[in-house]
Design goal:
about 120 residues; 3-stranded antiparallel beta sheet; single chain; alpha+beta
């Protein structure tokens, strides 16, 4: 996988999760025991990492954020805690406007003025 079990092992061991690498094209759903919580990370090359939580424990809600924001992946440690990601109302409005501008050409609900 692009990100190996070695680089995510710290997080898996912290929460007592089992990690399985799933190569591109291989089935993964049958690797999950009935009633087991899991987290699936899929990468650009279609490889996957499957994190399984024991049936006796609850899966940590912030696990994905912790892994992705870690130094190993995105190196954005201030994003680990969701509370430190809050922005001002003005910044949020600006970000929305910018996103809409970039997304407009991909918007499936966009009404073309030429189609009337």
């Amino acid at each position: 996988a692009v990100v190996s079990t070695q680089s995510t092992g710290t997080f898996a061991s912290r929460y007592s999760l089992e990690v399985q690498e799933v190569p591109a094209g291989e089935p993964w759903k049958e690797l999950i025991p009935a009633g087991c919580d899991y987290f699936l990370a899929e990468f650009e090359n279609q490889d996957k990492l499957l994190f399984l939580c024991s049936n006796s424990a609850r899966f940590p809600l912030q696990f994905g954020r912790e892994v992705l924001a870690s130094e190993v992946l995105l190196n954005m440690p201030r994003r680990v805690n969701w509370k430190s990601c809050q922005v001002s109302q003005e910044q949020e409005e600006y970000d929305v406007k910018e996103f809409r501008g970039h997304f407009q050409e991909f918007d499936p609900f966009k009404v073309d003025s030429d189609s009337d």
